[in-house]
Specification:
The structure is a single chain. The protein is mostly beta strands. The protein has a single domain, classed as ATP Synthase, domain 1 (Sandwich), CATH 2.60.15.10. It is built from no helices and six strands. Strands 1-2-4-5-6 form a five-stranded mixed barrel. The protein is globular and about 25 Å long.
Length: 80
């Protein structure tokens, strides 16, 4: 899957990932390969990313929106 995390200032992350966990407004959820299309609002919190090499990283965001479609994930974050 391809993940992009973008703030109003810059692109914070772009790359291939195996898993993304986000702080959804109605609760935390994960996105895996072939996830159903979704658009959801995000609360301030931590995004967990497991990249294609199995490395785990965490990124704090200040809320935003996530769109998942055809194994492409775009997170538009207010801040990161």
């Amino acid at each position: 899957m391809k993940l992009q995390i973008i703030t109003p200032d810059k692109e914070v992350f772009s790359g291939e990932v195996n898993l993304v966990q986000v702080p959804g407004s109605k609760g935390s959820f994960q996105v895996l390969v072939n996830h159903a299309p979704i658009i959801s609002t995000l609360d301030a919190g931590e995004v967990k990313i497991i990249d294609s090499n199995g490395k785990t990283s965490h990124l704090s965001i200040g809320g935003g929106v996530i769109e998942v479609k055809n194994n492409n994930i775009i997170i538009l974050a207010e801040s990161a």
